Amino acid sequence: MASIELTDLTKRFDDVTAVDGIDLEARDGEFLVVVGPSGCGKSTTLRCIAGLESPTAGTVRIGDEDVTAQEPHERDIAMVFQNYALYPHMTAERNMTFGMRSATDFSSAEIDRRVAQAAATLGIDDLLDRKPSALSGGEQQRVALGRAIVRDPAVFLMDEPLSNLDAKLRVQMRTELSRLHEELGTTTVYVTHDQTEAMTLGDRVVVMNDGRIQQVDTPQELYDYPSNRFVAEFIGDPAMNMLEVTLEAGSSDPIVRHEAFTIEVPNAPETEALDGGRAVLGFRPEDASIADRGTSPTGSVPDRRRTGRGDSERTTGPIEATVQVTEPLGDTLLCYCRAGDDEFKVQTAPRTGRAAGDAVTLTLDADRLHLFDLETGEAIYHSDTDRERRAATPEP
Amino acid sequence: MGTRDTREIYGGSLGVGRFLRERGLRGTIAYLREHGVRGAVENAREDGRSLLGELRGISVAYLLLAPTLLVSAVFLYYPALEALELSFHQTLFFGGERTWVGLGNYETLLSSSAYHESVAITIAFAATVVVGVMTISLIVSFLLYEVDWGQSGYLIAAIWPYALPPAVAGIVFLFLIHPSIGTLTAVIEGATGLEVDWFSNGRQAFFVVAIAAIWKQLGYNVIFTVAALNNVPATLKEAAELDGIGRWSRLVRIYVPLISPTLLFLVVMNTIYAFFGTFAFIDLMTQGGPGGATNIMIFDLYRNAFEFNNHGLASAQSVVLFAVVSVLMYVQLRFSDERVHYGA
């Protein structure tokens, strides 16, 4: 096991900068997920760690060693590829042992022992004699994982290992990867474009875009306190709503003014500086709720997914909107609402009979509001103050 | 009950073929015996499918095949049969006058020690050329595939000799390594201490012609091998790098098995080339000499036909040549069936 440290890592391909001077640390034994859209540089970063690409600038350290100039096989790493990269002409067992038998000094007995152990862990005992063409996608991926495990490396690198699997298998393998990491405790860097995978697997998640790191945090922190618009919109499904607003000083709390509504935002520091300024208001679809007809818009928010979110149940509003489209998701009903010229999504309880054309009154969870700078997209403020409290308690 | 089965027969545009594949010939015959052709047709009609439509589909297929079949028949099968017939005759005046001699020509060949020598030389020559071409082109292709800079330049350089017609290539090579005026001759003599005298030294002549034939055929092999290497997923190379597999080990143990279908194809093509396509080199460079050292079968039969005007004997020789190459093809394909890895 080992930590990984990237310092000012840069990779340019001709005139394209794939990775733009990133600093990143994967702690010893950590499951670090790098997530971002296609072309954000996440795979290139991983390949630089593996040694399959040599960085234009910067250093890669694994453990206490600077490995920037080392060949891939000198780095004590194992990598799992999206397309599995199994040798098609070799049996599963041969695939797992080929590298060790041809390029290491391990004894045959030791290799056999490790293969048996890895096969048992992954449940592929019966498949060892088969060639990849006789294995399903999930089985091939297990063999590829087996090949990584038998080497007992300091670091696992995984490049979208689940992307070629069908949806059901992907969820199953995701759980298995979690279990495997718990069992082995090997430092893992995992690249994916799928934010659900990132959130479910990662001890910490690195969000990348345009070759730069946008934020590194635990999944919940990323979700609750996105440091900029990109992270806010990338993490979470359905994505966070973004509305352009004007900020004003209010009587007690500052006021956010939109062409169709005006709401108060609590706990905002330094709003004087923003007075009259333009900003972007962000709130998640599940943090807006449709007030029941006839009740006061400043009532309590219906209890949905509010566990673990402190004791405040303050709301702010009202927002008058019209339902444009509804998408029933089974457990929730997603309403696309329009207020003024802007459209946004609201996740509500199912079976409420909302339909397109309904006029609704919305309230927002006052502790779940975010403001972003209109120009830079940087987060100006999150209305939740729990973060300081959380930050004060040491990490487990 | 027949309805489902006939649907199998007539379903799809070439349903008959599929039915045959699934049941085998015996199964199909058994089925037709049970239901009769008429029954099968009626069942098909019940299914709303037209047997006529099926037949029309098949006739269109043959119509599309017709040009190829016609050309093959006129220029390949007919001359081949004609040659076979000619081989049973003694001839004069380009086959204008023939006398039936039965297996006489074959008996002549069987008892001629010169011909035995020619066969042995041909096989040694073909083996040298095939092994030489395959080995060198595999290494050249691998280097080309791995090089980071200037790949297309190297590729053109490697393929270029193939762009020459064999006769031109033969002349070019003749002047490169001519014993007295060759541009490379002095260099080779200086470097190795050998005396280049392949006009009189049979062993040298054999290798010079073999090298010329190899040199000419490299480009063809490089094109296919580089293309095949480029089809191997890049992640396999990376997996091997991570596994710490050395370069040559990677070539031999990963790439060669993965491109084996292409290599098999090249073995077959190179064999045909070595037996037939090297005629121009022999004709231009050694005339089968010195002392018959390069008198390969294709050249020997050419001389019998067009210099000694013995078309019957030459036809018998070409039939033997055909048989030898056919057997070789069969052995190659049979042998490789177990080793070639398809579906990389």
UniProtKB/TrEMBL annotation, chain A:
<keyword id="KW-0813">Transport</keyword>
<keyword id="KW-1278">Translocase</keyword>
<dbReference type="GO" id="GO:0005524">
    <property type="term" value="F:ATP binding"/>
</dbReference>
<keyword id="KW-0472">Membrane</keyword>
<comment type="function">
    <text>Part of the ABC transporter complex XacGHIJK involved in the uptake of xylose and arabinose. Responsible for energy coupling to the transport system.</text>
</comment>
<dbReference type="InterPro" id="IPR003593">
    <property type="entry name" value="AAA+_ATPase"/>
</dbReference>
<comment type="subunit">
    <text>The complex is composed of two ATP-binding proteins (XacJ and XacK), two transmembrane proteins (XacH and XacI) and a solute-binding protein (XacG).</text>
</comment>
<keyword id="KW-0067">ATP-binding</keyword>
<feature type="compositionally biased region" description="Basic and acidic residues">
    <location>
        <begin position="302"/>
        <end position="314"/>
    </location>
</feature>
<dbReference type="InterPro" id="IPR027417">
    <property type="entry name" value="P-loop_NTPase"/>
</dbReference>
<protein>
    <recommendedName>
        <fullName>ABC-type D-xylose/L-arabinose transporter</fullName>
        <ecNumber>7.5.2.13</ecNumber>
    </recommendedName>
</protein>
<dbReference type="InterPro" id="IPR040582">
    <property type="entry name" value="OB_MalK-like"/>
</dbReference>
<dbReference type="InterPro" id="IPR047641">
    <property type="entry name" value="ABC_transpr_MalK/UgpC-like"/>
</dbReference>
<dbReference type="InterPro" id="IPR015855">
    <property type="entry name" value="ABC_transpr_MalK-like"/>
</dbReference>
<dbReference type="GO" id="GO:0008643">
    <property type="term" value="P:carbohydrate transport"/>
</dbReference>
<dbReference type="Pfam" id="PF17912">
    <property type="entry name" value="OB_MalK"/>
</dbReference>
<dbReference type="GO" id="GO:0140359">
    <property type="term" value="F:ABC-type transporter activity"/>
</dbReference>
<dbReference type="GO" id="GO:0055052">
    <property type="term" value="C:ATP-binding cassette (ABC) transporter complex, substrate-binding subunit-containing"/>
</dbReference>
<dbReference type="InterPro" id="IPR012340">
    <property type="entry name" value="NA-bd_OB-fold"/>
</dbReference>
<keyword id="KW-1003">Cell membrane</keyword>
<dbReference type="Pfam" id="PF00005">
    <property type="entry name" value="ABC_tran"/>
</dbReference>
<dbReference type="InterPro" id="IPR003439">
    <property type="entry name" value="ABC_transporter-like_ATP-bd"/>
</dbReference>
TrEMBL record, chain B:
<keyword id="KW-1133">Transmembrane helix</keyword>
<feature type="transmembrane region" description="Helical">
    <location>
        <begin position="59"/>
        <end position="78"/>
    </location>
</feature>
<dbReference type="GO" id="GO:0055085">
    <property type="term" value="P:transmembrane transport"/>
</dbReference>
<feature type="transmembrane region" description="Helical">
    <location>
        <begin position="154"/>
        <end position="177"/>
    </location>
</feature>
<comment type="similarity">
    <text>Belongs to the binding-protein-dependent transport system permease family.</text>
</comment>
<dbReference type="Pfam" id="PF00528">
    <property type="entry name" value="BPD_transp_1"/>
</dbReference>
<keyword id="KW-1003">Cell membrane</keyword>
<dbReference type="InterPro" id="IPR000515">
    <property type="entry name" value="MetI-like"/>
</dbReference>
<keyword id="KW-0813">Transport</keyword>
<dbReference type="InterPro" id="IPR051393">
    <property type="entry name" value="ABC_transporter_permease"/>
</dbReference>
<dbReference type="GO" id="GO:0005886">
    <property type="term" value="C:plasma membrane"/>
</dbReference>
<protein>
    <submittedName>
        <fullName>Carbohydrate ABC transporter membrane protein 1, CUT1 family</fullName>
    </submittedName>
</protein>
<keyword id="KW-0472">Membrane</keyword>
<keyword id="KW-0812">Transmembrane</keyword>
<feature type="transmembrane region" description="Helical">
    <location>
        <begin position="254"/>
        <end position="276"/>
    </location>
</feature>
<feature type="transmembrane region" description="Helical">
    <location>
        <begin position="205"/>
        <end position="229"/>
    </location>
</feature>
<feature type="domain" description="ABC transmembrane type-1">
    <location>
        <begin position="119"/>
        <end position="332"/>
    </location>
</feature>
<feature type="transmembrane region" description="Helical">
    <location>
        <begin position="312"/>
        <end position="331"/>
    </location>
</feature>
<feature type="transmembrane region" description="Helical">
    <location>
        <begin position="119"/>
        <end position="145"/>
    </location>
</feature>
<dbReference type="InterPro" id="IPR035906">
    <property type="entry name" value="MetI-like_sf"/>
</dbReference>
